[in-house]
TrEMBL record:
Residues 13-136 form the Mycothiol-dependent maleylpyruvate isomerase metal-binding domain. Pfam families: MDMPI_N. This is TIGR03086 family metal-binding protein. It comes from the Bacteria.
Length: 194
């Protein structure tokens, strides 16, 4: 296993924990709050993020993916939201564990299809981390997007985001003087860091 592959798996674990942490921090009355994802509530962002994780797992294993379209989240949930994210992250981590250490490509649900392992795990991590930030910001929590995580995810964003603008990502916002890694990544993904 290359150092890049090991690092990308570590980044994915960190992003998954960021998503878990953000979801665990949501208070009962906050699930209907608006988020940085236009037109989606906190619960819808959670459904989207969990669905995306399951889509990555399905692409790898061929097993069934999310039960609803991640890009049309219902905003209705039977059960505990924390359980939803825990299950999605667990299923996804198990799927990534099946990827051979010498794989040249890994299937993804992205329009780009199969990607190099570092980029595929990074794409999965980027999705989890950014939606963890969306949920945390919408519910008044501290940002789970650390400098180290943003620094690790920026090369992934640079490789993948442009073809997905307008579908999965908003237009990039102009950088501002003094932007550090987290703010720069968020602006590149079309989000206001504040």
């Amino acid at each position: 296993m290359t150092e890049t592959t090991v690092n990308s798996w570590n980044v994915l674990e960190t992003a998954h924990e960021a998503l878990r942490s953000a979801v665990r921090g949501v208070r009962a009355g906050d699930w209907d709050r608006p988020t940085p994802c236009a037109e989606w509530t906190v619960l819808q962002v959670l459904q989207h993020a969990a669905g995306d994780q399951l889509a990555y797992a399905s692409a790898i294993t061929g097993e069934p993916g999310p039960s609803e379209n991640p890009f049309a989240p219902s905003g209705r949930l039977d059960g505990d939201p924390v359980d939803l994210v825990e299950n999605a992250v667990l299923v996804t981590a198990k799927a990534w564990a099946t990827v051979p250490v010498d794989a040249s490509e890994v299937p993804t649900p992205l329009p780009q299809g199969a990607l190099a392992p570092w980029l595929a795990t990074g794409a999965c991590a980027l999705d989890a981390a950014v939606h963890a930030w969306d949920i945390a910001v919408a519910t008044g929590q501290d940002s789970p997007l650390t400098v180290e995580l943003a620094r690790s995810l920026r090369p992934v964003a640079d490789e993948l985001v442009e073809p997905l603008r307008g579908f999965a990502y908003a237009p990039a916002l102009a950088p501002e003087a003094g932007d550090a890694e987290v703010a720069a990544l968020l602006r590149y993904l079309g989000r206001l860091p504040r």
